[in-house]
Amino acid sequence: MRIALTYNLKEKDETKPPDYFSEFDSPETINAIMSALQAKGHAVEAINVATPELFSYFRKNRLDVDMVFNIAEGRFGKYRESEIPALLDCLNIPYTGSNTFSLALALNKALTKKILKAENIPTPNFQVFKTGEEVLDPILKFPLIVKPNLEGSAKGINTSNVIQMHESLFAKIHEIIDGYKQEALVEEFINGKELTVGILDNGKTTILPVLEIDFSDCKLSGEYFYSWRMKEYQGNKELGLIPIFHCPARLDKYTEAKVKETALKTHHALGCFDISRTDIRLSEDNVPYVLEINPLPGLNPQESNFPIMAYAAGLKYEDMIEAIVMSASRRRKGLN
Length: 336
Prior knowledge:
Largest sheet: 6 strands, antiparallel
Structural class: alpha+beta
Order of helices and strands: EHEHEHHHEEEHEEEEHEHEEHH
Number of strands: 13
Distance between the termini: 19 Å
Mean pLDDT: 94
Strand content: 15-25%
CATH superfamily of the largest domain: ATP-grasp fold, B domain
CATH topology of the largest domain: D-amino Acid Aminotransferase, Chain A, domain 1
């Protein structure tokens, strides 16, 4: 196939907040995907979606591109992840991954949680604060965690976002609203195991082995969940950011099955295609609470969670990438 790889390039810019480019991909990830596609016999051209020629490129080449492998986060606003799929839909160019609707929905944590609740999928109780002047819903029980509602890659989320007392809550809410220019999501913080589950459509919907992220060796850092700092500096021994990855997770068979079923139901409830990763906190009483779903999970072959789960399932990196392409191709032909 002739494949265009659409991406956002992670940059360094000291004038921007430290987490500004966190959702974007490194050159290592982009090159790894290109190499995997080429190893399977595809002709690949990489397209940075920040280029001014993006629209003219696809208008000009729409008949010459068989498939777009899309890992782009988009550029602006709360519908940014839908920008590239929307453009490709207009030009009738097939692409990997979820459509405009699912991507926009999954980026909005509160709307995602409303759907989860409607589908009886466990998710922590929550409340959205648009101004910071709202009254806290008495149903919410401390500790609480405050997050930007429309961000990925744990942007804006650190240990200071976990709030133990009412007196500290609204300062953090205002910090999020003012800093990220969007509403704040406040939800109950679930103590328990940090899990993530990958879904890969490779002829059939495959639930990958559950990955458990263990922070027991991270005491030096003060981090105890998958915060932005943990994700950004993962593996830094000097900072004490050295999580242990257990894949498969240390779960009994019943709990493992329940966690996998929860991830699969979430994948279907949000209408995801080809690939997704669902983040779950397994409570101390073994309830799998869904925190969010990512239809554009990281694909760095060395660091990202999704490839770790694929490797545990016996897949090589290039086979994982090819499975995503083939799933999108089958869907285009009406076979999925």
